[in-house]
Specification:
This protein is mainly α. The chain has helices at residues 3-24, 31-36, 41-46, 73-87, 90-114, 120-128, 147-152, 167-185, 188-197, 199-209, 221-237, 270-276, 281-287, and strands at 62-63, 66-67, 258-263, 304-309. The chain folds into 3 domains: 3-46, no CATH class; 62-251, Lysozyme (Orthogonal Bundle), CATH 1.10.530; 258-309. Helices cover 50% and strands 5% of the residues.
Length: 318
Amino acid sequence: MSRYMKKIVLAAVFCIAAVCAGYGQNENEGGFFANLWGGGSQVEQERPIQNVVVPKIPEEASFAGERVPLEYFDVRESLQREMLIINYWHGSLSYIVQLSGRYKDMICNILKEEGVPEDFFYLCVAESSLQPQTSPAGAKGYWQFLAGTAREYGLEVGSEVDERYNWEKATRAACKYFKKGYEKYGTWTLAAASYNVGMANINSRIGYQSLDNYYDMQLPLETARYVYRAIAFKTIMNNLPEYGFNISEEDMYKPIECKVVEVKGPIANWSEFARQHNTNFKMIKMCNEWIRSNKLTNKLGKTYKVLVPVSRETKGAE
């Protein structure tokens, strides 16, 4: 290397050293390279601050009047897992809470009429989030009935009418199942578990495990989490501020005021039916998700009760 090149290199080294020294004079700045690669207190202050905590488990819990044995570590961990997931499911849980203002009383009234504990409302929440869902396995509606089971419990399932999406009929059908399970197993928790995995599976496991207590039994993962998920929804939805959800009464969706129109014959076009009743098909469908087509053939001349919204306006709106 020539003497000239050596001088240039030496000068460059001195310059870099001076710059580094300058940036390093202030400890809070972290030096030149710290700032160059994103270090330093200013950058740290701009990082998002999270406050993620494990939600508190209640001292006592129950489902359908049956005590949850929280003294067992596996039971506590199972409940905490579901509460952790649900508690940080911010947008979805907030929407479910809003929907509960519209549907909870209706569902609980039916449960009460049918002699089923009102806590099964939270099983409906766990099943469908109070929405007309379809599962990967083909279970549909608010209570997630498979087609065969739905028909077995008196629901019509077809391309034009699917009563798995009928709030009242599907809830009453689910109640029949729960009562049958309770009569068979003697506990509501195991009746609920059988709704998820089927009575044949529960029967088999009772046989080779010599147990008939949900909290003690080894079950498929989905079923093992199933009742805990309902308990977690119950715990959080009944103590929203404690778990960081500030949802006011004004935020809750109100029940849709409807009149009942009996349909005993075919409907050529549901949109025309809606116009005749001063509404639109969108609103008819919102109140009657069991309508699955734009027409109703009704070859058997059955009577269908169609809920027709009285008004679309929000009361008190300016």
